[in-house]
Amino acid sequence: MKVIVVGSSHGGYETVRGILAAHPETEIQWYEKGDFLSFLSCGMQLYLEGTVKDVNAVSYATPAGMRAQGVHVYTEQEITTVHPDRQTVHVVNHATGEERDEGYDKLVLAVGAVPFDLPVPGHDLENVYAMRGRDWAIKLKAKTVDPAIKNVVVIGSGYIGIEAAEVFAKAGKHVTVVDMLPRLLSLYLDAEFTDTLTQTMADHGIQAATGQGVKAFEGKHGKVTKLITDQGEYPADLVISAAGIRANTGFLKDVVALDDHGLIKINDYLQTSDPNIYAVGDATLVPFAPTGQPNRIALATNARRQGRIAAKNIFGDQVTMPTVSGSSALSVFDYHFASTGIKAGTSEKLGVKSQSVLVTDTAQPAFVPDAAGNAKVWFKLTFDPADGRILGAQIMSKKDVTANINTISLAVQAKLTVYDLAYTDFFFQPGFDRPWNIMNIAAQKAIDSLK
C-alpha cells in the first residue's frame, strides 16, 4: 500500500510513526511545505528563553532519521491539488520549481492551521510578527536581544499570546497584551484564577488591555510604531499577533467536505467525505467528552491521538476517536495552572448547565514551611447540578500540582460523579500532599452544595 501524509507536525508525525510500528512494509511519502521537518511550536517559549539552545532540537524527527526507517521524506515540497477521482496529488517542489503528480492508495491530511491575519490597515508593516513555526522562532529570538525593541504589543491572550508576553517581559521589554475578551486567559480559567495571574503579569511589566478590538497598525518608514484599538493607542516597536488560527484548507475546497469555518468534516474513524482520505489535527473537530459533541480543541495531544488512530484505520481497523476533555497547562512566571473540560465561564456557550465549587488550601500540611516547597493551591471543580457528573476543573499554585488535572480528565471521560471522587483513594505523604487530596475536598464540598 502507498500512503501519502501531508504535514509534519503532531498529527502527521504520529500517523507516520503509527504506520511504521504496525505496517513497516508500507510505502510512505511524507510531505512538508517548509524546509524543516516536524518543528514543534509548543516548544517555542523554551527556545526563546534559552532553556533549549538549538532551534533545530525543537522537533520530533529529522529527514535522515525517518529515511533510515524507510520513509520517503519530502521537504520544501507542497501538495497544491488533490484529485480524489484519480487518487493523485499534484506536487510543487519549491526548491527546484519542478512539478509532478503522485498516486496514492490512502491520503492523510495533517494540514494544520496558520495564524489568523487581522484584516486591518497596517497589518503588512515591518515588525508585525506571528508566533508559530521555526522561521518565526528564529526572528523572534533576535528581537528579544534587539536594543531597538522597547515596547512590545501582543494581540491575543491565549496560551501563545501569554507565552510571547512572558518571553519579552523577561527580556526587559515593556509588554501590552490586547484582547477582545474581558479577561486574560479567560478561555482556560475563571476569574478566581485570572485575577491573580493578571496581577502577577502586571508586577512583571505586562499591561492588560482587555475588552478592546484592534483597529489599525501605524508606522513610520515602513516599520510599526503604534497599535490602535477602539479604546486606546499603544506604542509598539514590535507586534506579535496571536489572535487565533484558521484551518489551512484553502486548497481542499472542492476536494473534501468542509464546514463553514473551513474545517475538514470527518467521521468517527477520521475519514473525510472521501473514504480514501483521512484528516487529523488542527483542521478538524474532536469529540468533546463533557458534551459528547464535536468541538474545536487545537492541542498536540488530540492531533497525536488522531494520527495514531488514522494509522490503524487506513489498514482496515475500525477504531473510533475517543472523546477528549481538552486538558492543557501553562506556567505564568511563578504560577503553574491547568484546566480540563467545562468551566463556569464556558458552560453557557456550550449549552450546558453547570455548578462549581472553589477550594483553596495548601499543597502540603500547614506545618510544612513554604521554603520547603509548600504553597497555596486553588482548585475549582465543575459538575452537573442534576446528577453530580464531573464536567471539568481548574487548578493553580506556585507548586506544580497540575498533574491533578489528568485525574479529572479521566473522571470526565469515564463520566464519574462527585460522589465517586469524594472518597477516591489518593496516597498521602506530607512531603508531597495533604491527607485529603484537594480533589477529595472539592468533591465533598460539591456534595454538600447539591444537598
Largest sheet: 5 strands, parallel
Please write the CATH class name of the largest domain.
Alpha Beta
Q: What integer value in Å does the Rg equal?
A: 23 Å
Task: Count up the domains.
Answer: 3
Global shape: globular
Strand order of the largest sheet: 3-2-1-7-18
User: How many helical stretches?
Assistant: 11
Architecture of the largest domain, according to CATH? 3-Layer(bba) Sandwich
Reported by name, the CATH topology of the largest domain is: FAD/NAD(P)-binding domain
Compact summary:
With 451 residues, the protein is of the alpha/beta class.
Descriptive account of the structure:
- This protein is α/β, with parallel strands linked by helices.
- The protein folds into three domains: 2-34 and 41-114 and 246-313, FAD/NAD(P)-binding domain (3-Layer(bba) Sandwich), CATH 3.50.50; 117-243, FAD/NAD(P)-binding domain (3-Layer(bba) Sandwich); 328-450, Enolase-like, domain 1.
- It is 23% helix and 28% strand.
- The chain is built from eleven helices and 25 strands.
- It has helices at 10-22, 44-48, 63-67, 134-144, 159-170, 191-203, 300-313, 344-347, 404-413, 418-421, 438-450; strands spanning 2-6, 27-32, 72-75, 77-83, 88-93, 99-103, 106-109, 113-115, 128-130, 151-155, 174-179, 206-210, 214-220, 223-229, 233-235, 238-241, 245-247, 277-279, 286-288, 293-295, 328-332, 335-341, 355-362, 376-383, 390-397.
- The strands form seven sheets. A five-stranded parallel sheet has the order 3-2-1-7-18.
- Helix 1 runs parallel beside helix 7 (300-313).
- The longest helix has 14 residues, at 300-313.
- It is globular.
